Amino acid sequence: MKKLQYLVLSAALLSASAFVPAQAADAAPAAAVSQSVDDRLDINTADAETLTRLPGIGMKKAEQIVKYRELNGGFKSVDELVNVKGIGVKMVAKISDLVRI
């Protein structure tokens, strides 16, 4: 019974944890998950390496974002990320508070 309680408590703690993007060593730590507009990544200017700081965005998806941006003249809205190969509605919802145009 104690093991079950421990597993339930562990799962609850894990689900309550929040993503905070990695920052440079000299940068101030993130104050909150929901960032102000100035702190969000600009998906029209961020390079592929910077985009990998977003949850669920690896180098391949980051490169796809940059490629889409170059071919289409930049994003007009964050929701337009669904047009990038490998990025769906759930992914956009997950990162929408962390990015901007």
Summarize the structure.
With 101 residues, the protein is mainly alpha-helical. It has helices at 2-16, 48-51, 59-72, 89-95; strands spanning 41-42, 99-100.
Description of the molecule:
The protein is mostly helical. It has a domain at 39-101: Orthogonal Bundle (DNA polymerase, domain 1). 40% of the residues lie in helices and 4% in strands. The chain is globular. The model is unreliable at 1-20 and 29-33 (pLDDT under 50).
Oligomer: single chain
Principal-axes geometry comes out as globular
Biggest beta sheet attributes: 2 strands, parallel
Percent of residues in β-strands: under 5%
**What is the CATH T-level topology of the domain at 39-101?**
DNA polymerase, domain 1
The secondary-structure element order is HEHHHE
* Level-1 CATH class name of the domain at 39-101: Mainly Alpha
Query: Radius of gyration from the CA trace?
Result: 16 Å
Give the SSE layout.
Blueprint: H1 2-16, E1 41-42, H2 48-51, H3 59-72, H4 89-95, E2 99-100
Parallel strand pairs: 1-2
Structure characteristics:
DNA polymerase, domain 1; two-stranded parallel ribbon; 2 strands; 40% helix
